Fold this protein.
Amino acid sequence: MKRGYHHGNLRQALVEAALALIAEKGPQGFTLSEAAKAAEVTPAAVYRHFAGRDELLAEVARQGFDIFAALLEYAHDAGRPTPLAAFEATGRAYLAFARKYPGHYQAMFESGLQPGKHPDLAQVSAKARATMDRAAEALVQGLPEGRRPPASMISAHVWAVSHGVVELFLRGNGGPQPWPAEDLLETGIGVYLRGLGLLSPDR
């Protein structure tokens, strides 16, 4: 099926074109003119919707964060029996998103965009982070009040571990790996939670 602008929604056609180009060349490997060509419109038509390539990438990233936030929220809220199970589910959702939406993931995290320069992007990325913070907040309630680290710090650490597993092993940048990415993430989070006293040593 030929890709292009056929249905009156040029803005979304350009997003789809950008996703295809990201898959082929990476988030910094294409021009706005190439996106226009892939969407079968003139470069001049593109500028009615996006001021430049970064604006187009920001829209791809915004849509990605919207999907990401929804997946995290579903993973956290879908009948998880304990705060620990809900917290672990958000980590697995991170990997699931990166595997299923690689183009969006690259626009979000590998394009060099600064969310602060794109208000819509900043808003939806904050929504995703808020779900991770909420999962961590429920988890730390199991610690004595004087020993509770900030929930936002815990979610930031787990986000960093999840991101590292995705970059090095799910996306293959760390070379061949004998363990599945999910196992690496689960054991990494387990070591971290045991250090905080949130997981018993025999688990």
The domain at 1-50 is CATH 1.10.10 (Arc Repressor Mutant, subunit A). Residues 28 and 45 are 21 Å apart (CA to CA). The chain has two domains: 1-50, 59-196.
